[in-house]
Design brief:
With 302 residues, the protein is of the alpha/beta class. It is built from ten helices and twelve strands. Belongs to the MetA family.
């Protein structure tokens, strides 16, 4: 089934070129079906790229999905045009009276700041508090995962001595968990962050299940016991070239950054990288939409 997106959203052309089934509002409204309503709080700087990455994964299931993009009202994006934000995004005050089947909170390039010093932290806290009663399940990515662990469960982040940057091997810790259904016992996934959370704190929590971890990259996939909050510290949604573009951007800025680990063939940045995590990205989003959103959401919200 398709994902419903606005006719003029730039990601539409990208997805159609990849043969992802998308439809606009006119066609979707003619279908007698109860779609899933997914809210995406996009905190990434290059919002159009993140839109395409997430929509690609949300659009590859048998479920019809309606997507609403949410922006912060207390922070103005410098890397996305005001026209794009005005046309395709809404703010929390406009949707807080609604209920959503699922929600995604993305990462953000603010991880080295204490949470309380992020200029939209109070707004984000209000949104995360609201999500408990207004969203069936929320998927938090990278810094969004660290924010959720801190806000909902009191688990802080800490700065790493060296950026966790590259493609790392992970192992499945609980094969009975529906979120990981179909996963290989070992698989790889991208990471790109300067901070981490304590694996001991996660394992000692009575409210969180650690589902997958890496010897090199630490805790990766976590779930609240009731499945309402899913936390992923890496970026399974990344395209093959995303880390390469981040690396070259940091080089241009003059940053002292190492080559992403296990990413370029032979660790040679002149060679094109290969996507080795795509299948598990699709599995994760499909399992989340099916088992944590569709199967748990009432047909009619009360």
């Amino acid at each position: 089934m398709p994902i419903k997106i606005p006719k003029l959203l730039p990601a539409r052309e990208i997805l159609e070129a990849e043969n992802i089934f998308v439809m606009d509002e006119d066609r979707a409204n003619r279908q007698d079906i109860r779609p899933l309503n997914i809210l995406i709080l996009n905190l990434m700087p290059e919002k159009e790229r993140t839109e395409a990455q997430l929509l690609r994964l949300l659009g590859n299931t048998p479920l019809q999905v309606n997507v609403t993009f949410l922006k912060t009202a207390t922070h103005i994006s410098k890397n996305t045009s005001p026209m794009h934000l005005e046309q395709f995004y809404t703010t929390f005050s406009d949707i807080k009276h609604k209920k959503f089947d699922g929600m995604i909170i993305t990462g953000a390039p603010v991880e080295l700041l204490p949470f309380e010093e992020v200029d939209y932290w109070e707004e984000l806290k209000e949104i995360m508090s609201w999500s408990v009663d207004h969203v069936t399940s929320t998927l938090h990515i990278c810094w969004g995962a660290q924010a959720a662990l801190y806000y909902h469960f009191g688990i802080s982040k800490f700065e790493l001595p060296r950026k966790c940057y590259g493609i790392f091997k992970h192992r499945v810790l609980d094969r009975t968990e529906k979120l990981l259904r179909g996963f290989d016992d070992e698989y790889v996934a991208p990471h790109s962050r300067y901070t981490d959370v304590s694996i001991e704190a996660i394992m000692n929590s009575d409210n969180i299940k650690l589902l997958s971890a890496s010897d090199e990259a630490g805790p990766f996939i976590m779930s609240a016991n009731n499945g309402k909050q899913i936390m992923i510290t890496g970026h399974l949604e990344y395209d093959a070239e995303t880390l390469s573009e981040e690396y070259r951007r940091d080089i241009r800025k003059g940053l002292n950054i190492h080559v992403p680990e296990n990413y370029f063939p032979n660790d040679d940045p002149s060679l094109p990288p290969v996507n080795r995590w795509r299948s598990h990205a699709h599995l994760l989003f499909s399992n989340w939409l099916n088992y944590y959103v569709y199967q748990e959401t009432p047909y009619e919200w009360n």
